[in-house]
Amino acid sequence: MNILITGISKGLGLETSELLLKNGCTVYGISRTKTEELNELMLKYPNELKWLQYDLGDIERIRQIIFKDWIGLNTPIHGLVNNAAIAYDDIITNLNLDLLEKMYRVNVFAPMMLTKFVIRQMLIHKESCSIVHLSSISVHTGYKGLSMYASTKGALEAFSKNTAREWGEIGVRSNCLVAGFMETEMSSALSDNQKNRIYQRTSLKKPVDLNSVAETILFLVSNKAKSITGQNIHVDNGTI
Amino acid sequence: METKLLEIINTVLENRTNEKLTSLRPDMNLRYDIGFDSLDLAELTVRIEAEYDIDIFEEGIVNTIGEIFEKLNRK
């Protein structure tokens, strides 16, 4: 299976890429930077891991650079994992439009365009395809300072459900993985006190395990999940 | 170009096990004469783009075979 995944230089993207590779997938991974950990993974899987340095804020060139020049229209894509995202956190009265627009480009518009071109590629190859968008528990449970970020993920959830409905008949599945708070760079701006308060709101009272999220993504892109589409799958330590 | 376009349209028609076309006329309507629905038209667009590098739907809806020829000739 050929899987396109974004944001693979660290955190969940890196963990998921490694898991996909271990399970025999060919990974087309995109990130802005190449970290030491990513470099190690590339050395371990020189043929199976294909890497492109690309800033997803550059939406206009996605088709040309990612699909035409890099993957190539002759390569079928069986899975898309929209993982890359930026977090612009602040209270609403401080909302800065430029920062909000930048976040929407990366978190919403780029995943929508990637979905567009993955489906178009799929129409040529006629092989089934599974799309997984990374969403966040902040869509479903309010947190102070996360309203702007949460709104980008809410947009993805709506987009995913409608993608599932519109393209299901030709074999496209689309689901969102609703992740709870993990110990990644994304949440590193939070103080220990803030993090502990967030973890106390979960049933399991601790950060969500990265590997558990990655395993669920692997499941959703695989054929084992072939009857699952249009869903939001919560991996959030029971935030209820 | 006409033979290639006919071939592409017949490939898309295979989805519906519709009868293949033997020729194309400019006045043929993609939906009403050929029987394409919106998903077939999406596939048609992508196949034409793969062959000619033109997105025929980029500037709005295309209704007839003649309009496709026009777009391809403009390149």
Compose a concise summary of this entry.
Helix content of chain A is 42%, strand content 17%. Chain A has 240 residues and is α/β, with parallel strands linked by helices. Chain A has a seven-stranded parallel sheet, sandwiched between helices.
Question: How would you describe this structure in keywords?
Answer:
heterodimer, A: about 240 residues, alpha/beta, Rossmann fold, 7-stranded parallel beta sheet, 7 helices, globular, B: about 80 residues, mainly alpha, Non-ribosomal Peptide Synthetase Peptidyl Carrier Protein, Chain A, 3 helices
Question: Could you give the topology of this structure?
Answer:
The complex is a heterodimer of chains A (240) and B (75).
Chain A: E1 2-6, H1 11-22, E2 26-31, H2 36-44, E3 49-53, H3 62-71, E4 79-82, H4 97-125, E5 129-136, H5 147-167, E6 172-179, H6 192-200, H7 210-221, E7 232-235
Parallel strand pairs in A: 1-2, 1-4, 2-3, 4-5, 5-6, 6-7
Helix pairs in contact in A: 1-7, 4-5
Chain B: H1 2-13, H2 38-52, H3 65-74
Helix pairs in contact in B: 1-2
CATH names the topology of chain A as Rossmann fold
Give the termini distance of chain A in whole angstroms: 35 Å
Give the DSSP E fraction of chain A (strand runs of 2 or more residues). 15-25%
Q: What is the number of strand segments of chain A?
A: 7
Largest interface: A-B, 9 and 8 residues
The CATH C-level class name of chain A: Alpha Beta
Q: Identify low-pLDDT runs of chain B.
A: none
Pfam families (chain B): PP-binding (PF00550)
Domain Carrier (chain B): 1-75
Protein name (chain B): Acyl carrier protein
Keywords (chain B): Phosphopantetheine, Phosphoprotein
